[in-house]
Every structure is written in C-alpha cells, then in structure tokens.
Amino acid sequence: MTLILSGTDGLSDIDGSAATPAIRGTDANTGIFFPAADTIAFAEGGAEAMRINSSGNVGIGTTDNSLFNSVGGTTRLAVCGSSASTDILGNTGASISIINTDTTANNTAGLHFARADTDDTPNYAGASIVAQFPDTQVTSQYPKGLLSFLTSTSANNAPSEKMRIEANGDLKFNSGYGSVATAYGCRAWVNFNGTGTVAIRASGNVTSITDNGVGTYTVNFTTAMTDANYAPITNSAAVGSVNFQTPLAGTVTTTSFDLYTSNGTTATDSSIVVAAVFR
What residues does each domain of the chain span? Predict the structure, then answer.
C-alpha cells in the first residue's frame, strides 16, 4: 500500500496493524494503527493496548465495551485486566487508580458522577466518592485515608457528605441525625422460645442458648465481642401474661451473657424471649 503524505490530507492511505502500526517511532511494533472505519488503536509490543471505536467508546486492554447491568448496552470506558489473586489487599492486575500527586495533609482524590448542563457546559456533579488523606505524605509509606460518600439532597444543591468510613473503620452516616455521625450497630440478636426445650426462632451472631434452670438462660455468641462493655437489651412475654420482665442475671463476658425472665416476683420460663447487643 502506498503511503501518502500531503499538506491537505496529512498522512493517509495506510491503516497498519498491531504488529506494524501505521505511525510509529524507532520501535517497529509500537504505535498507532486504524483497525476499522472511524476507529483508532494503540499498539505496544505488537499487541493492541487501547482503542477508541467509532462510537467514541474507549477500551483499555479490551476491544469489547459491552456491558450488562440489568439491560444490555455499552460502556464509554472499559478497562480490562487479568488477576487470579483472591487477596483484596493485593489486587493490581484488574484495577483503576486515582492518584493525587500533591503530598500535603488533608488533600483528596475523588470519583464524581455528573450530568452535562442543558447546553452541554458545564458539567454538574450529583454524587461523589472522595478519599481524604489526613496526614502529610511520608516517603515510602501507605497514607492514612478515609472515604466519604456525597449526594445531592435536591435539585440545585451541590453534593454534601452523607456517609463516611473513617480511617479506623468506623462507619458514619447521616440518616436523620442532622449531620454525619458514627453508627453503632447491633452486634448480636436472638428471638427464642424459653419454655420446655429451648429453641431459637431466629438470630444473628448467636450460636446457642443455654438453659440454666427456670427462667434463667445464657446467650452464647458466634463471634466474641472485643470486650465485655457492651449493652444487652432484653425483653420477654408469654401467652396470658401481662407482666413479664427480663433483667440481666449478672454474668457478662466477651463470649456470652446471662438473663432471666420473671412474672415480676418469681422466675418463670417465657415462650418469647428477645435480646439485642449493642457495642
């Protein structure tokens, strides 16, 4: 094929391939080629590394921009990698990084979801995920980081923080608090029948209930608490009873706690006993 170079058309009439790009430097198998109509591709070492197809969609490491997320379609940017690692800490082969080269304290790196204005300029963000690095960067060290999630509360309102994962792992969110505050989750819960042979109806992080006698039980955790300073909340009821009480019975450890049920004066088995643990 003849290569044409003119002041009108520029470089034309040669498409090239990944092995022999149409435009290249001294490295014969690295450069730019044109694999299809209205398509530009970039080759490295004789293999295609990236392409911009006729729809303007960009594929890095792939030529397939198809995406199924409840309906079929295509994504504007597809980044493809391969990694067999199951370690969430060591994933690099299939990943995207957003890097801030400034090293001062409290700087950020973010991912913003936006819409173009009605006249296509400017673009307005409606939601964002932003990482913040509280400390000045130290050479050859991982930075301390927290992650914030922002959404626009209503039309013509800039995104504001609604949830945050602190550097120590605490989850904070704004769900009627008025501001972002730490969420203290339920660490264990159980609903059981305390009459006859004790039977758990449903539970979370409770492995078993020990029957210690009339109206006395031990709730055993599947996963232990970090300490014994948690807050168990308990209650009970029984058919035909109007005055069942469920106070703690004394022993509280990282792996279990005791409770007993009574009719107000006498220890009594209860057909409905519920407990929840907060920490």
Answer: 4-79, 107-182, 186-278
Residue 48 φ then ψ, to 5°: -65, 130
Which residue type, as a one-letter code, is found at position 19? A
User: Do residues 206 and 189 touch, judged by C-beta distance below 8 A?
Assistant: yes
Backbone phi and psi for residue 141, each to the nearest 5 degrees, phi listed first: -130, 145
Low-confidence ranges of the chain (pLDDT < 50): 1
CA distance 87 to 99: 22
What would the pLDDT profile of 22-55 be if each residue is shown by its tens digit?
999 999 999 999 999 999 999 999 999 999 999 9
Q: Which of 97, 69, 89, 93 is nearest to 80 (CA)?
A: 93
Of 206, 194, 201, the residue nearest 267 (C-alpha): 194
The tens digit of pLDDT for each residue in 124-139 reads 999 999 999 999 999 9
Using H for helix, E for strand and C for coil, what is the string for the chain?
Answer: CCCEEECCCEEECCCECCCCECEECCCCCCEEECCCCCCEEEEECCEEEEEECCCCCEEECCCCCEEECCCEEECCEEECCCCCCCCCCCCCCCCCCCCCCCCCCCEEEEEEEEEECCCCCCEEEEEEEEEEECCCCCCCCCCCCEEEEEECCCCCCCCEEEEEECCCCCEEECCCCCCCEECCCEEEEEEEECCCCCEEEEEECEEEEEEEECCEEEEEECCCCCCCCCEEEEEEECCCCCCCECCEEEEECCCEEEEECECCCCECCCCEEEEEEEC
Length of the chain: 279
**Is-above-0.85 flag for pTM?**
no
Name every residue whose Cβ is closer than 8 Å to that of residue 202 and which is 6 or more positions away in sequence: 190, 191
